[in-house]
Amino acid sequence: MAAADDLAFDPWDPAFVSDPYPAYAELRDRGRVTYYEPTDQWLVPRHADVSALLRDRRLGRTYQHRFTHEDFGRTAPPPEHEPFHTLNDHGMLDLEPPDHTRIRRLVSKAFTPRTVEQLKPYVSQLAGELVDALVAKGGGDLLTDVAEPLPVAVIAEMLGIPESDRAPLRPWSADICGMYELSPSEDTAAKAVRASNEFSSYLRELIAVRRKNPGDDLISGMIAAHDEDDDRLTEQELISTAVLLLNAGHEATVNSTVNGWWALFRNPDQLAALRADHSLIPSAVEELMRYDTPLQLFERWVLDEIEIDGTTIPRGAEIAMLFGAANHDPAVFTDPERLDLTRADNPHISFSAGIHYCIGAPLARIELAASMGALLAKAPTLRLAAEPERKPNFVIRGLEGLSVEVG
């Protein structure tokens, strides 16, 4: 184990947030695990360890299925944060078996590969329309004109949220996701609580409507879903799952799109190769997600003592698995700092692994391929109009915008 007192790893430093990958290399060189006192976390930067720990049942996204806060040596969240935690703690991402198993099984009945495959024509049409509008005005902000509206509309369509109700979805999501950053401020928490209350109230009303008049949407499907034991989702589980599907269903796609195009603009040889051969789109999607990972860090609680490279990590500790570092591990990826759209062996972990593997990964791939294909076909001269600014967030990695020109 290495000490972290002189590390370049600093999630609050704008220079680090702008380019964390040199600091990740330093962490990997120091060892398999490093204690980081500012966040009281154990940082794990290597691909083999991250991949194994994502599957290790001695770790959990929650500990409350086995321990009280006091038993686990942790302090309960402030009461005023309760609406956020009620919403967050009943979603699949922050549950462990048996609740996670039951909810994922029920959601999977509605969120089938066939359901996702049937969305392809809609996704392609919408991507084409958004790019047409961008081209018609000679350019704009790729973030707000294409990257955001595509996945938000797709997941809202899947859930059955009427078009007239969709405007608050992205702001609600952004405010809720602020709580996933390291040491969020009280202002961030207040915004997340307000968004949690408003989003939950909206979905509670929509669920009531769908109970009386079910449709062929995902919310209706989740209301109807049950198994041989007649297990069903509770109303809170329905609400939390819908919010999770919306948040996770577009945050990664939005950020992968703008991070990806920013990487392409900085690697003109790779962009030229992609423009010359659109059959590279599937491997380009995977490589761009590896190269600049949309989710940089994923946390787990140590439920039972573990050992990493001779270092004992006690029960009650928190592990921070560094996805961005793992995706640049030279032990797994040849020349990892180079963008290579033809990279064939690409076991990136941007969609996580184990029981929490992203249920929406197939949909994300469809969306990313559709928007990339539409931009390549309809905006072959797409170019950067201004240097973008990074969002100050570290965990969820994205840009404030991506100004482009066409023509």
Outline the fold blueprint.
Layout: H1 14-18, H2 21-30, E1 34-36, E2 41-44, H3 47-53, E3 59-60, H4 82-89, H5 99-110, H6 113-118, H7 120-136, E4 139-141, H8 142-147, H9 149-159, H10 169-177, H11 186-212, H12 218-224, H13 235-266, H14 268-276, H15 281-291, E5 297-302, E6 306-308, E7 311-313, E8 318-322, H16 323-326, H17 361-378, E9 383-384, E10 403-405
Parallel strand pairs: 2-8
Antiparallel strand pairs: 1-2, 3-5, 4-10, 5-8, 6-7, 9-10
Report on this model:
- With 407 residues, the protein is α+β, with helices and mostly antiparallel strands.
- The protein has a single domain (14-405), classed as Cytochrome p450.
- Helix content is 49%, strand content 8%.
- The protein is built from 17 helices and ten strands.
- The strands form three sheets. It has a five-stranded mixed beta sheet, sandwiched between helices. A three-stranded antiparallel beta sheet has the order 4-10-9.
- A hairpin with a 2-residue loop joins strand 6 (306-308) and strand 7 (311-313).
- Helix 10 packs across helix 11 (186-212) and helix 13 crosses helix 15 (281-291).
- It is globular.
- The mean pLDDT is 94.
